[in-house]
Amino acid sequence: xxxxxxxxxxxxxxxxxxxxxxxxxxxxxxxxxxxxxxxxxxxxxxxxxxxxxxxxxxxxxxxxxxxxxxxxxxxxxxxxxxxxxxxxxxxxxxxxxxxxxxxxxxxxxxxxxxxxxxxxxxxxxxxxxxxxxxxxxxxxxxxxxxx
Amino acid sequence: xxxxxxxxxxxxxxxxxxxxxxxxxxxxxxxxxxxxxxxxxxxxxxxxxxxxxxxxxxxxxxxxxxxxxxxxxxxxxxxxxxxxxxxxxxxxxxxxxxxxxxxxxxxxxxxxxxxxxxxxxxxxxxxxxxxxxxxxxxxxxxxxxxxxxxxxxxxxxxxxxxxxxxxxxxxxxxxxxxxxxxxxxxxxxxxxxxxxxxxxxxxxxxxxxxxxxxxxxxxxxxxxxxxxxxxxxxxxxxxxxxxxxxxxxxxxxxxxxxxxxxxxxxxxxxxxxxxxxxxxxxxxxxxxxxxxxxxxxxxxxxxxxxxxxxxxxxxxxxxxxxxxxxxxxxxxxxxxxxxxxxxxxxxxxxxxxxxxxxxxxxxxxxxxxxxxxxxxxxxxxxxxxxxxxxxxxxxxxxxxxxxxxxxxxxxxxxxxxxxxxxxxxxxxxxxxxxxxxxxxxxxxxxxxxxxxxxxxxxxxxxxxxxxxxxxxxxxxxxxxxxxxxxxxxxxxxxxxxxxxxx
Lengths: 147, 502
Hints:
The structure holds 2 protein chains of 2 kinds. Chain A is mostly helical. Chain A has 2 domains: 5-62; 66-146, no CATH class. Chain A has helices spanning 5-26, 29-55, 66-89, 91-106, 110-132, 140-146. By secondary structure, chain B is an all-alpha fold. Chain B has one domain (2-485). Chain B has 23 helices and 2 strands. Chain B has helices at 2-12, 15-32, 39-46, 55-80, 89-100, 104-139, 142-159, 164-178, 204-223, 238-249, 251-266, 271-286, 298-322, 328-339, 346-351, 353-376, 378-381, 389-408, 412-429, 434-458, 462-465, 467-489, 495-498; strands at 181-182, 189-190. In chain B, strands 1-2 form a two-stranded antiparallel ribbon. Chain B is globular and about 60 Å long. The interface between A and B is large, with 57 and 55 residues.
């Protein structure tokens, strides 16, 4: 049986809600009442939605065109890349690097546009948030290790 | 009362006060278009400048900036689906679809005029009802606050998109996420994995910019869309004028939403996000075609825009009369009062009523200045919607990520915003409701402590023993079940054909 992407997502939501419910059971009585009241009906409804999606006939929505799937994969990988870049080299360089590489490699807009987006990212984070608004900017693990 | 009103107007119209008000508005617009920075941050940044100012000038400066951030946040919500703060969420729901239809200038015009009229309606209502509002503010206790949130929660169902069940699941998931962090009453840590960042709960701005900005950019890029608006007429400024006339055409939505905003503003702690959502939901329910909301309905944009500005005046009542801040921004305003040598509280109404009215006028005037300055840049701002998506997507994602970071100054917010962005993309793809999740998250933080306190004080009987909670309970049940009862009672389109003899 071919598993539909909708069923997979419904299952993920169900797992998250079951985790919330399981966690709530472990809390002392005063702290568990609210999450328990909330997650119990949510889990019941999520099971119903999941079962319904398994029984439903396939529709056009279940099929994602190859080109769209490729673009989705690209953008998801780029977001993971951004998290890794920010973690290693910090917010200023990480964000600028993300803008530059996304525009160059995924959007395929050429060097000038890529540099423009990268510089914009740098100005946004370093100049506006760092220098003008005086936000403490995360420096990354490389910066922390070098100190 | 009229002489006090006149004194208040004179205070608000001083040349120095007007000058600082315009300066505050310009700074507020600049701060407000940056995601993650809203009226609260604007006031916090500008408060050190008021030490040498008179009270009227200081409040002109601060409130000018605060009001301007609201409209500036609406601009990014309408044009890019990037709400600068929680109060702008409901603006995205119909403002952004309007921009996508090439009606960005019209949307900006609708927002601007709704802001002005909403502020003036709020000011008029408040000017008339200050003494009544004072007693109302004292009548609102935790049981009433809890029931207000329950009323809001029932709107979760009505805000649901294609699937009601998935809408309810989304709302409940939002409530569950709201329970992450320290329990507001017992102090017990829940779902934190021992991470200090999660002790304060999941930050609303992080979730909002993640779900709306990042999620929308993933969707646009994946779908291969060329730009946000495929055929925007940016050179045609007449769209702005057309938009400015719309609130007069849909005057009932404007008045209704403004009154809801004013009344909800009086309730301490409810805040702009809730009042906007409630106003949007009520206008939607009152509409003849509620199912078309979310597709670019004019009333759907008028409601949150009028409500959020009208609520500003309402929030001043508990702040000034009781010394209880109506919201985050008014909490900062309280400290401004102390800086300029005033003590908000019960004596404020009797001793400084002129200043109270001055504040009402300042809010109303600020909305006019904001709209004039905001609209003069509208034709340039609406061009944003024509920027090619492959170029716009990384820029918006960068904005969103930095906005999420600014809200908490923690790098974990970057991760969380991206996770919620991906979640938002898939939720929309599979007919779950992002607005319901956000509503659940917002209301969860208010409902939890008030439920605890209400149960401790009165037990479960608080629902029927207190008159206001009883009315709110009945309203909640009606909001939830009335549309279904009406739907069932309505004859089905094919029923006549299927009947014998047809």
